[in-house]
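PT: before anyone asks, these are the final sequences, not the draft ones from last week. 836 residues across everything. Please model them as a single complex and drop the result in this thread when it's through.
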Amino acid sequence: MSTTAAPTRTERLAAGTADYLDQRTGLGAAVKTFARKIFPDHWSFLLGEIALYSFITLIISGIFLTMFFVPSMTETVYHGPWASLNGVQMSEAFSSTLRLSFEVRGGLLMRQIHHWAALIFMASIVTHMFRIFFTGAFRKPRELNWLVGFTLLILGLLAGFSGYSLPDDVLSGNGLRIADGVALAVPIIGTYASYLLFGGQFPGQDLIPRLFTVHILVVPGLILALIGLHLFFVVLHKHTQYPGSGRSNKNVVGYPLFPIYVAKAGGYFFLVFGVIALMGATMSINPVWSYGPFDPSPVSAGAQPDWYMLFLEGALRLMPGQAEIVIGGFTLSLNIIVPAMIVPGVLFTALAIYPFLEAWVTGDKREHHLLDRPRNRPFRTGFGVSLLVAFLILVLAGSNDLIATHFHLSINDITWAFRVLIFVGPWFAFWVTKRICLGLQRKDRELVLHGHETGRIVRFASGEYIEVHKPLDAHERWIRVQHDAIRPLEIEPAEDSRGVRRKGYRIDRMRQRISTVFYEDRVEPVTPAELAAAHSHGEHDSLAAADAHAEVTAGVGAGVVSDGRDHLSADARDH
Amino acid sequence: MKALAARRHDRRAPIVLLLLALLLTGGLYAAFAPSASAAAPTSASADDIAKGKQLFQANCSTCHGPSAAGTASGPSLIGVGAAAVDFQVGTGRMPAVMDGPQVEAKPVQFSQEQINQLAAYVASLGPGPAIPTAEEVDPAKGDPATGMALFRTNCAMCHNAVGAGGALSRGKFAPNLWETSPTHLFEAMLTGPQSMPVFNNANLTPDEKRDIIAFINEQGGAAPGGLDLGAIGPVSEGLWAWVVGLGLLIGAAVWIGAKSS
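LR: through. Structure below.
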């Protein structure tokens, strides 16, 4: 901009406002810091933004819905445009949902936007979470932020369940009945817990108002606060980046927040909102009028919860009913305790503690700002895939009746197949994934050592044939050799030099055993010595794989094993 | 043609061709797919019974026996009434083509006149439920709200909340009801074909059956909220949320992140 041109009216107004705010709040300094903040660029870093933006969509559409929804279980008689329910007795909650859908202008669109946004919210949380998992972005210093994200996932489940139960229809009532059954199955306190939740015998008169408070106040309040903390941590730790030439644990390579990411992320909000609005406008979701007002007696075929709760339904469907045992007149409902408490308990605990477990068995106390390529961590990648496969099998088991009708199969056979698969499938998926990762690492080694195949066969005068390979360029090679080779832990011996038993040896030995499970099978990255050998006389195979690795990797330039990395300051990494 | 030739090696060309091929196949199928039509039932006479007997012996006696008294492979039809014949043959379920978990509906094998003759013959073997009159099954005369209450108490646990169908044990299933004619709905309730229980007129009165027909008649049309996604509930909603929603959004993310540093 030219300094001589007189500022226009708009410019003067903007400058005046900015100056007014800056003098009173010191906003200028904050804007300056944030505007210059560097973010690395990759499409997978936008997955968390889908969750954030669908949550904003949820709040906006949710506020609209609260204007018309009546959270009451008072009985009323419906008179309205939906013929199949005309003159039917129902709760105020159900009747106001019908009014919202059929009589309030734009009401059905808002309901559908809200519900689709909820499904997208949960789906994007899971996708984002597994992006973090597979690339190892949960490693130090980000373990606490992993737990914040994990808590957001659980709160998302709660928000979804309390939300779709609000209209008081038969389908969600079936879900509440299951929740009641799960509460009742808790040993000793079960009955009291159920009476406390429902304000008496199920379904009672209090539940909908209570769910309403949980759904519009408690859970979204917590989610909002934790999203704040989640993003604060992102700013504090700075964003991770994928490995590549020029990127290290000490820098962040990317574009500044302003104007690049303000435009990209801001634009992405409108895309997220647009896709959700498009779905809300064209695809029917949760047509409560089809299910009718809640009545404890009917259950229709194909009664399932929303997708993120479907794994619990699947676990219940897989569990044989005979597991209920009676001890001295007290019933222990293992047929409910196992699928509804132990199965989700195992899955979620594994997910929550994995970062801490991995750090412990790796013996890794360094900060990590460079992401892993999933293939370079075969155990972790296999473990993540097996968790997803277990979840998927449970989801499919929860849809067993629909699989039976759509593919003309026997529901009994499907259920038995899933009962076997839930034990075999995750192990098999783990094994296959780990093998694929190791195979990809071998391919990386092969490429680094030999280069790309060119298809050119050359015959020498002596009669010898060789195939000409094109060597990788420096950037291609760096991506394939930059990572650490992680080996099983080595521990101090059981007894010290004077033959006294060492404290903590047993724990160390256990740690070493788990570490062996994690890292015994591995393909180590090519060392410069191996590379040089391959280039000079092609006899790299005769070299011992990677004993020389640690010292020479540092020579390549990453400083992965240099001492300084433990002490890097946050400022040094900031551009 | 020059433009076409230039675009032929575009990497999107196979996708476009695939979509065109799918469109063509779908269009041809829609144009040539057989459509069923039903004729109005007429009253029976001795002549009809005689012709029905001939049809029966030619087409049904292998399984049901020459005198319709049943064999090891088919039940006795004495006393099942005209309603059962009209339903089983009128929906194409009989004559059955093969053994299976259950006999499924298929294109109807006989004209309505022949079906009436068969029905007249079977009805003559012993008293049983008759084919309902047009008034008994007229959805316009029923109350869909009462029908909704009756349907979800008696039918929804197998046929799904809106009659979209559901699974039964060992490969059997309760079919979708949206394309079934009101007469066949009434007859199914009255005679209880295959796995379905009998809802006789003491259990569900003819008026209540008509209310249920009125309720089913309201289902399966255009959903108020847009595409009904099969009307099978949250599983298909979840599937589409992942496929369409996350699919589009990840596509958009890849697009935004494409010009990377």
